[in-house]
Amino acid sequence: MGKRVCTSPSVPLTRFGHSLACAGFLRSIGAPVDSSFQRAHLPLLCANPNAYVPVHSEWLFYEDMSKREVEADVLGWEVGRWAQDNNIHLDLINSVATAPTLCRALMDLSALVSMENSHLRIGIIEHGEDVLFYTNNTFGVGRPGHYIGLSYSLMVIIAILRHFTGANWQPREIGIKALAVPGRACEILPDTRIITGQKLYYVRFPRTLLSLPPERQWAFEHGVSNAEEPQTFTQKLN
Length: 238
Description:
Elements: E1 13-15, H1 17-28, H2 34-39, E2 51-54, H3 55-68, H4 72-83, H5 90-97, H6 102-112, E3 120-127, E4 130-137, H7 146-165, E5 173-175, H8 183-188, E6 193-195, E7 201-206, E8 231-232
Parallel strand pairs: 2-8, 5-6
Antiparallel strand pairs: 1-2, 3-4, 4-7, 5-7
């Protein structure tokens, strides 16, 4: 297993690969991103997805781009749909991809998620005949970019689930913290009920799905190289 970031560093950190995913999506629609990288104090010349950057820098980048190019209630959903799970650390994907069942995969994902974000918490909550697989960031609730990051991580989770449930699968229900349903989310997940004003972002599905084996192996299908060793960028914010 590769290097892991401490679960409680003094500065909350996230893998730079997720900022690169957002930048990749924005460039794909012709949006300029370099100046926003600079304003957010992100390393403009770094191409290593396994570098660690401050979470608040990533969120500042999201928020800045949402004001200039793509609206905030759309950006996280669109980036997540575009990137899917292709920017997750390869060690984490290897662990999840070799799990015999969805249940094991989600347990491994929950245990290793600090490789992606030091303050991101995910896990399973039993709810009658269903389960809720949730994502929540314990840092900076309500700060600019917070909801964008959670929307993105929710779409990444759905992408992982689809390796077990099928490429066209949609959850029966998702919960979000936002108080209004993003119109784009309804287009992306037309068969999914979206519950607003929740304490957590979550995906709800029947517990029977937990026993599903993976439909295929996908660990080495990712287009982003994760081979480099982690670095940390902790520029002082203004």
